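User: I'm preparing a small set of examples for a lab meeting where we compare how different chains pack in three dimensions. I only have the primary sequence for this one, and I'd like the structure in token form so I can line it up with the others. Please keep the answer compact; I'll paste it straight into my notes.
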Amino acid sequence: MDVTPVVWTRLPRGPVGPLIALWLVLWALAYLAGCTLERSGVFTPDPCVPASCQELAIECGPVDDGCGGFLDCGGCGGRSQCANNECECHPLECGEPGLECGEADDGCGGQLACGDTCEQPEMCGATAPNVCGCPDACETSGRPECGLVWDDCNAEAIPCGRPCPPSATCVESACAELTHYDVLINEFSWEFDYAELLGPPNLDLGDLHLIAIEGDRNTDQGRIRFAHPLGTLDDDGYLTIELDDDFVGTGTVTLLLVRDYYGATDGSTDVDTNGNGIFNFQPWSEIIDGVAIDDGAVDARTYSELAVLSRNFDGFGAHVGGASRVPNGVDTDTDGDWARNDPGGFGMVPGAAPAPGLAAHTPAALRGPGYNVVIKWPPTHAGDRRSE
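Assistant: Understood. Below is the structure token output for the 388-residue chain.
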């Protein structure tokens, strides 16, 4: 064991000596305290400060902190991956799932243009962004409240919106309250003894009657020849009424569709006792529709303020034995709404040839073989056909 010899030196006398002795004592105490702190770990001379990821310009991954440790500088977001402590972005490409068409972000700040690659009737983005799909037919049709629209993708008509309540029907893609004012005398024929009404599907006509008023100058002029109670229009909006054979005949007559009829049904009710063509008794609350046939006899009377079909209303110069609205359901309250029915029975008689300029007989409930014409309300094209 080496022992450092202690050399004792005599301190100078006077005021300097004590100061030097005090300094030596303080230095010894400080030295001993420093050794004690170093051994306990409380004091480390000359400490090392580790660097940060930012100071080292490191983007990702682990890295030496400069003091014997490691820093975790995290990972990369989005399409980027960590390589050599740097984030490298790998952009998307057209054709990958979800990138079939259109323009899209490539995931790395760039833009992809994948083009219009969809086959009709599919559209880009119809069901999801940048994906080909079938558009919602109801959406592309403006979200109608009700009714059917054509779906090109499935080649069928599909329902849109909601069913209309029982008191309404779907008209032009919107629910409309059912009303008797939409009901028309659509076709009639004395030759085949029927009359047809057209209106909103399934409308109950229980408070309406179809009446015929005699117009020829005779003892029955102004009398109601028949008053036919009505039922309910079918799913297509039709109601066909079968009349008795030759019940009206070939003279002047007026057909009226009236509400709340309370007259007789045996031909005894006279609504024009003066024979002047003016009602002096009206056993109904209102007239819904009407059409008259004027055969041209002297002093004959008609009672419709709407359409009057004379012998020559269409240039044929003969008694009108039946007529149809052409196009189906047209209603301008003039004789121009009507076309004379073919007296040869085209549309009712199998094998009958159409006559130029005349309408076919097409009553919904009595239609003959080969004439399956079904027209929905409201009319969109001619259901009653005029021969060319």
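A couple of notes for your slides: The chain is about 10% helix and 25% strand. The first helix runs from residue 16 to 40.

User: Perfect, thanks.
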